[in-house]
Design a protein that fits this description.
71 residues, mainly beta, 4-stranded antiparallel β-sheet, two-stranded antiparallel sheet
Length: 71
């Protein structure tokens, strides 16, 4: 679970290029580009409590994860 921030770190040689967070209805509620980094932190304080899907675009492909935001 997360409250105000989500830390994302990719192991190996993949680099993060972008992150999109979707709510339970499949609507994009957050989107950002990342400058070829293996880790980043996302501020989630503006999101309501609930389950979200995170789509991480890397130079090696897509990664999908779920995160539970608790306020």
């Amino acid at each position: 679970p997360s409250k105000d921030y989500v830390n994302i770190e990719i192991k190996g040689d993949a680099k993060i290029e972008g992150i999109t967070i979707y709510n339970a209805l499949g609507q994009a509620v957050y989107k950002t580009d990342v400058k070829s980094s293996s880790k980043t932190m996302i501020e989630t304080s503006s999101l309501s409590s609930g389950m979200y899907n995170i789509q991480i675009s890397t130079d090696k492909g897509m990664i999908y994860r779920k995160v539970d935001i608790i306020k």
